[in-house]
Amino acid sequence: MLTPYDFLDIIGLKLGGERIKVNDSITSVEIRGLLGVMPPKARSKNVPLMWLYSNIDSCKIVATSTHMFVLLFIGTLLCPDLGSTMNLRYLWSLRDIGQIKNYDWGGMAYATLLHYMTHLSRRSLSSLGGAPFVW
Questions:
Q1: Where are the strands (E) in 1-135, listed by range?
Q2: Mean pLDDT throughout 74-89?
Q3: Measured distance CA(63)–CA(83) in Å, rounded
């Protein structure tokens, strides 16, 4: 059986920390301020991961490239979705770069693993998503 601590030892993150803050009402002005640019066609505040990857090099400010990088990290490893998109509501936790290390990223990854394992066991998915892709 894989315990939370086994999982976190494997992926190298800690369990615990501050709750990850999200803002479902984040405005386009706030998004532009945090990313330096407004993503095109951001439906329901979701942006394609490829858009983040393609635009990270064009950031002229370290903070905006950090925001894009962490969103890309969350969307590809910690909490991926099946549509290869990232919800911009997580930008709220990235506003203060000094605080990023204090959030429960290991808990997020573990919860995502359990989510995918539950759906896989119920046969509503045909493959496992989340951090196991790394293994």
A1: 46-48, 85-87
A2: 86
A3: 26
